[in-house]
Amino acid sequence: EETLQHHYLADAIVELEPSATEAVDEKVKEMRRQGIDDMISLGVGEPCFDTPDNIKNAAVKALMDGETKYQPTAGAVPLREAICRKLERENNIKTDAENVVVTAGGKFSIYLAFTAMLQKGDTVVLLDPAWVSYEAAAQINGAKVIRVPSSAADGFSPDLDRVERVMDDSVKIIVANSPCNPSGALFSKDTLRQLARIADKYGAMLMSDEVYEYQIYGQTHYSPASEFENIITVNAFSKSYAMTGWRLGYSVAPADIVDGMKKIYSHSTSSVTSFAQWGAIEALDSEASAAEVKKMQRIYEENRSLMIRLIQKSAYLDLDCEPQGAFYCFPSYRFDMGSIELATRLLEKYHVGTVPGLAFGQCGEGFLRLSYAADGKAIEEAMGRMETFFQELEKEIG
After folding, report:
1. Confidence at residue 2, expressed as pLDDT on a 0 to 100 scale
2. Residue among 327, 360, 362 nearest 136 (CA)
3. DSSP letter at 360?
4. I need a labelling partner for 276 at 20 to 30 A (CA). Which of 21, 50, 121, 336 fits?
5. Rounded distance, CA 234 to CA 45, Å?
């Protein structure tokens, strides 16, 4: 039967792994549907908050006011203008609405840029541990991926010499995600500048994925596009404003890349939902939204401290590198067991969802990604169950 199935699918898709983070989320939801009511997920990177009311109301008003028609492919002009104001105000990026593309989440921005730029024979450089969907987007487009590993001992900061060593003319894109999912690492301004220069030297673009720009603790965010031309900046409303289900993201890129992205976009989904875009304008322009973001940040900060404290107390987990951004801890565990098997057992036996480190590249093996974008009580309960699970595991495997 399998050969029949494969007969219909493109080779690149047959080899594609589904998203590991979404697989965990699906499994958690499936277990809940089966009536398991004590599930706790530290697996999915989703804010525990509802979207602020002022943002919802703006979208409802737009809907009732008849914003129900097609918008330009790249997004409603008022939204793109609001994004330009935000970029200048907060990121020191000067651009105009023509260079902005509004997409169904940041993920689709990445997919469009990769599809516009990549073909067989091209290479994408990923800095491991790296978010799960970059490799898939390259693979779908027939490009190959080179992963440059980093270690917890170095704070998961990319090794620039190693990056330089893998570069050649086939490299079209280096992807930098800072703050980083899964490690929580924040790359220094100097590191990001060097990456932009290395990319430029080989005629490549640096894709700067900045979706966690508001989730930074005690430091400041730096956008390489404030200084360099060869940058594709990707951002989203999902994490910043607790708008994951709205599927709204955006990217800013040089004109020829934007044109390529818009061509593909015009033949695929045409544009994002019209009235939702007015919610995004409210998110960017209103002081009420900024105040809500600050509130969420305070809670992430408390949750971060709580999770770090619980990991430090654990007899089985080690956190060599405290997260400086995003909302994940990426501890290693003291068992000689693959992270996929460990995470699966933990989920099935103790109903705690986590993401196996291997999903983010080989150097993530032996780690688990734990999200603290959950409720504080849920974090305590989940970490307590994990300790019990580890104690039992220790007895079992000695």
Report:
1. 55
2. 360
3. G
4. 21
5. 17
